[in-house]
Amino acid sequence: MIVPLTKHRQDGALYERSSLVETLLVQLAELSRDDLVARAAIRKRTDPSYIPSECLLYFLRTSRHDNSDAWFERLYKILQERVLRALPRAGGGGSVALTDERIRNDAFDRFVELVARDRQQADDRLDFYEVRFDLAIKRLRLDAQDKAWREENRTRSSDQDENELSSLDQDETDPYTIDEDIFSDPRFRARIYAAIDTLPPEQSRTMHLLLLGWPTHSSDPEATTIAKVLNCSDRSVRNYRERAMKTLAALFNHGEDQ
Questions:
Q1: Secondary structure of residue 14 in the 3-state scheme
Q2: What is the DSSP string of 189-209?
Q3: What is the DSSP letter of 225?
Q4: Could you report the per-residue pLDDT of 58-89, keeping only the tens digit for each?
Q5: pTM value?
Q6: Could you tell me the domains of the chain?
Q7: Contact predicate 43/32, CB 8 Å
Q8: How far apart are the C-alpha atoms of 57 and 75, rounded to whole Å?
Q9: Residue 249 and residue 243: Cα distance in Å, rounded?
Q10: Are 5 and 58 in contact (CB under 8 A)?
């Protein structure tokens, strides 16, 4: 008897294998293990003896009830090769190859994790793989791809921020600086602080922390920085500072000694 699936769809209906798969499972169950493995090793899908991955996964899962891991390992080796062939290959060099390798590893690791859990105790998360195996693997690949791209974008953004911050640190002039004499002059100091208080909240907090000597960024991950306090990126802090300084410079750099 072919073991039915147990996972339910959102509408409450049970997942069901295709009629082709169900019919083929009954036929394959009559084969010896050696004959089943021999047919499972066929890669060409147009071959009449080709075994769909949905069927191969079924026998892999039901091997959980055997007393030996040998049968599981024979089937798993073939299924593993099929999964890896469906994932991007990491070849050549450069960032694209590294991203492909990350996608391949993450997707395959996720599949291995699902199989391992099901091996210990039936896990209905593999049921969909018996219904649409190729689509399930594609979803694993896309999830891993999205994750890899997000990490790559974060890394690229972080590198860009560091380069921009380094460039800013090396600049000899800042277009939005305020004359130091104004900060040291008691007549203007109170007015500057009052003006800072009228700025948008993020700009105001940034300026107050800068005046207290807080760093905008640090290579020390344990250091307390303005970015951490404001829960934003170094780039955002720099933007807050530039906008605030532009406003303050316009107020105090031209004829404000009257």
A1: strand
A2: HHHHHHHHHTS-HHHHHHHHH
A3: -
A4: 999 999 988 778 999 999 999 999 999 999 87
A5: 0.59
A6: 19-153 (no CATH), 180-254 (1.10.10)
A7: no
A8: 8
A9: 10
A10: no
